Amino acid sequence: MSFKPSGQNSVSPYLVVADASATIKFLQAVFDAAVLRTFPDADGRLMHAEARIDDTVIMLADAAPQWPAIEAHVHVYVPSVDETYARALQAGAASVQAPMQKHDEDKRGGVKDAGGTTWWIATRVE
């Protein structure tokens, strides 16, 4: 028996956000995320959820008094930073940085979603 579930990566970001359902919709719209599972409580609050973006599982939950929302930064490589950045803005994210190439091989931009997570989106161009 494996030490981890089949198809899971070894390290996953765990986001505690203000509205986990909205974050999942954002991940689906922007990154074509596949929802793997959700565990709502009796009031519909997501106690735990998992969504796959490419080869990585993002875990997340709704904030609660004992687990307040925490702003986080997550870096994601995508086939087209410009297209993904545009989709993120259309999905309601705020621009942090328009896509640009600086001092490395990546063209990178950043957006902040309504739940407080900053998503750094990059494509290797050289």
TrEMBL record:
Domain (VOC) ranges: 7-124
Organism of origin: Methylocystis rosea
Domain of life, per lineage: Bacteria
UniProt xrefs under CDD domains: VOC_like (cd07246)
Pfam families: Glyoxalase
Record's protein name: VOC family protein
InterPro entries: Glyas_Bleomycin-R_OHBP_Dase (IPR029068), Glyas_Fos-R_dOase_dom (IPR004360), VOC_core (IPR037523)
